[in-house]
TrEMBL record:
Residues 1-28 are annotated as: Disordered. GO terms for biological process: cyclic nucleotide biosynthetic process; intracellular signal transduction. The lineage of its organism: Bacteria, Bacillati, Actinomycetota, Actinomycetes, Streptosporangiales. Residues 189-298 form the Guanylate cyclase domain. It holds the Pfam family Guanylate_cyc. This is Adenylate cyclase. Residues 1-17 have a biased composition (Basic and acidic residues). PANTHER family: ADENYLATE CYCLASE, TERMINAL-DIFFERENTIATION SPECIFIC, ADENYLATE CYCLASE, TERMINAL-DIFFERENTIATION SPECIFIC-RELATED. GO terms for molecular function: adenylate cyclase activity. Belongs to the adenylyl cyclase class-3 family.
Length: 350
């Protein structure tokens, strides 16, 4: 690793990103980012770690890595060390194989998206919005990555620990509100927020304008969700899905989200559907009728309004910040007739 960094910084080395404007090679990128050169084939890395080859390959696949040919030297000493840690976990009976694979899949999918997102941000920062990166840009990105990598590693570990603590705190709150958390179902508030007329707007904007609209919506929405201690489950371009442990948190969050998107006067219109009820958490996502109901309420809602289901309305009875207005029953696809309520901020007395 140290040798590769010297190569990248050397002004006289024709392979270093600072020395020329040549596009960096895959080997240069791997030398910078991977801890050591490849030494092992698929069979050798499993044998060196003392792990069955079938298990090792299941772990690599769960992490999202391609399957290499049998004779390809593609694994490093760090891969051996990682597999040895897995062997220790299994030997001490801390976790079973199924749980290890599930954790590996969660790690792989999350870090793959994180790495792709960070790479795209770096490319746009160096080459400019909408422009294809030149060879000089790519060399510059590699140089910046070399300098910032230690700081990124430290911050990543800190943020992961802080997010893990936040997740644990949320689970404690949910456990306090759920008598039977061991059943696999949790009773929480689920919300969808949807950009109004997104299909029409997307036809009127160029690619850059559309990207700015989506990124602005997602960034503001994620800020509001985080500020209320709720969780942003996923973003779907013109829509976000979030959850909150308590109905009142979700209700105030939804009101603040509509206000936040209109702060500058010309922000996008959104409509929000909230439902309170049982969900099944799985792979960081949530599933079940309550989730489907929140999505259907979002589709029914008028621009700039929030609709909630009857259970949510009952749970919000007596909450000082909000008021609810019952409207006529509506058909919801796949769910039959539902009873929506319009949620509004409570007006101050005249």
């Amino acid at each position: 690793m140290g040798e590769s960094r010297t190569d990248c910084r050397s002004e006289g080395d024709e392979h270093g990103p600072r020395a020329t404007s040549r596009r960096p090679t895959a080997e240069q990128i791997e030398r910078l980012l991977l801890p050591g050169p490849p030494r092992y084939t698929r069979k050798q890395v499993a044998e060196a770690a003392g792990v069955p080859q079938e298990l090792a390959e299941r772990i690599w696949r769960a992490l999202g890595f391609a399957t290499h040919p049998d004779d390809a030297v593609a694994f490093t000493d760090a891969d051996v060390a990682a597999l040895r840690r897995v062997r220790t976990i299994l030997a001490e009976d801390l976790l079973g194989e199924r749980t290890v694979i599930r954790l590996a899949r969660a790690l792989g999918q999350t870090t793959a998206r994180l790495a792709q997102w960070q790479a795209e941000i770096m490319i746009s920062a160096v080459s400019g919005e909408g422009g294809a990166p030149s060879d000089r840009d790519m060399a510059r990105i590699l140089e910046i990555a070399e300098r910032l990598l230690p700081d990124f590693e430290t911050v990543l570990l800190h943020v992961w620990r802080a997010q893990l603590a936040a997740a644990g705190t949320r689970l404690l709150t949910v456990a306090d509100l759920n008598d039977d958390i061991a059943s696999g179902k949790l009773t929480i508030a689920v919300g969808f927020a949807d950009l109004v007329s997104f299909t029409q707007v997307s036809r009127e904007l160029d690619e850059r304008g559309l990207a700015e609209l989506v990124e602005g919506f997602e960034s503001r929405a994620s800020d509001v969700v985080a500020a209320h201690g709720a969780r942003l489950v996923k973003t779907l371009g013109d829509e976000i899905l979030f959850t909150a442990a308590a109905p009142e948190i979700a209700a105030v969050l939804a009101l603040d989200l509509i206000r936040a998107l209109k702060e500058d006067g010309d922000g996008p219109d959104v409509r929000i559907g909230l439902a309170y009820g049982p969900v099944v958490p799985m792979m960081g996502d949530v599933f079940g009728t309550t989730v489907n109901l929140a999505a259907r309420l979002t589709a029914i809602a008028r621009p700039g309004t929030i609709l909630v289901n009857e259970e949510m309305a009952l749970a919000l009875d007596g909450v000082a910040e909000v008021e609810l207005h019952r409207i006529r029953r509506r058909p919801a696809r796949g769910l039959g007739m539902v009873q929506p309520y319009v949620l509004r901020a409570k007006r101050a007395p005249a």
